[in-house]
């Protein structure tokens, strides 16, 4: 979506014979909104959100870090860019991705004469030895400060234009802020630029800056109606014990929730400081500012979508975009549970039962029309378990209606999902089968 937003804006500017705008994108890691993830972001709300327009129906197609970021960069579905999980073998900065990497919005803007800047997390396996090392600079970036590997807050390596630099005690979000402000201060306004700032927050290990530790000491995780409920009518992966979660896990969820909020405070400061730098250097009114996340986060809720902010400010067009994202557990850097061989993202310190995040053996459709707000999911295993929810009447997805709708309706969703899982190009992907009458 970002790629096509750029193209739309640039096309309109060219048609009006005006100078080309700048772009600033802040891309957080695992930030939610429905569960309160935007509550700490007072500066984001003040400087961007309160002056924007809301796009409520923009979706992430694969809510896990590397596949989502690959789609963010290319505008492609996962089955086309083939980054299917967070491992090199799964396409995360692997051989296939490197063949596709020349077709990102960065290369498009770079070829159009833009100066391009990246600082922070790129793809989870970028810069690691097995993926070619940190000397590689992805195509399309004229200034590059890419984090090597997955999100951390301390003890990291950054590839500074292909030169690896290690730091042990400098907080990464603050370094991204400083690099960004320095870049802005060196802009003369004679050439358009595009910047992507990708801080680690609020990804695990959820480490706040020292100045923010304990700020939310009394905050607890959001208890929505679907928080920690029994899941007897769900796929076996979701119904396996413990269900509901034990009390000791709930206290851990509260701790993680507080730490995530506290880690986001440095991002909120980054946004304020970078916008101030744009303003001080007379660049703000000619810059679109977009705030979003790669995917949301699961905090004990059963079957809920997460809304992520995507915001834009600048020129004569103000956009305030909400992005709905299906939940998924983020990847930890620790050792997985060897007792669950087929579930490679099971980390005992953060999870008390196995998960399918590595494999994602399901596909989902979200169907929105004037009188329809439906979610359909099909698990692609020998059980072929189906879930359907009418989100108009059941926003927390408490009642699975898959067996209540007409078989013809259920069959239409199955066919449409199969088509979407194989489509290529906008003409094919944007024109699903004719919608049936929805009867319950």
UniProtKB/TrEMBL annotation:
Residues 1-15 form the signal peptide. It comes from the Eukaryota. GO terms for molecular function: glycosaminoglycan binding; N-acetylglucosamine-6-sulfatase activity. The modification 3-oxoalanine (Cys) is found at residue 65. The conversion to 3-oxoalanine (also known as C-formylglycine, FGly), of a serine or cysteine residue in prokaryotes and of a cysteine residue in eukaryotes, is critical for catalytic activity. GO terms for biological process: glycosaminoglycan metabolic process. Residues 21-301 form the Sulfatase N-terminal domain. Its cofactor is Ca(2+). Keywords: Glycoprotein, Hydrolase, Signal. It holds the Pfam family Sulfatase. PANTHER family: N-ACETYLGLUCOSAMINE-6-SULFATASE FAMILY MEMBER, SD21168P. Belongs to the sulfatase family. This is N-acetylglucosamine-6-sulfatase-like. It comes from Papilio xuthus.
